[in-house]
Amino acid sequence: MGKDTKKAHSKGGSIYTLAQSGTKISDTSPSFYEKLVYGMGTDGNNTKALEGRAKCKLITQKTMLQLIDVAKEKGAKDRIKSYWNAYYCQCNITSSNGRIYGKYCKTRFCTLCLRIRKATIINVYLPIIEQWENPYFVTLTVEAVKENQLKKWVDGFGIVFRKITGKYKKRAQRGKGKN
Ligand SMILES: [Zn+2]
Questions:
Q1: For residue 73, what are the domain limits?
Q2: Is residue 179 in a domain?
Q3: pTM value?
């Protein structure tokens, strides 16, 4: 293993070094190219999963191009950068031993990364929710507001939501009511 490989492994352990090619350049060169990849990869033979990813990519890329135009109009440079990150998420992929590896953008705008985030959150919350006697799902909505009022409304939701959760947290700590 090369120097870079050792360094990568010491950081976490979720990085793998793959043999990209069996081509030997010269007698003094390594016997193969090395490339670092992250995560466990995706099964390259799982057509259904790959089709799902392709759909996500298509939706994300179409949306990002439109959002980039809006961000340009508003001069929001940071947003433009984030949108491009989402646009190029998983664009460069590496395959090895039937698995596909690529870098995830992890932005809030990427449908592919949001799908993964949702699954991660479900795995965390589901064991707790399953212990509840009668769980139910509530969605709170209001009518659409004008752009200049949006921040005020979003901030207001945050305040109200914290009040509600704070109230029930206190009740639970006192041993009254449900948590
Ligand atoms: Zn992404």
A1: 43-137
A2: no
A3: 0.61
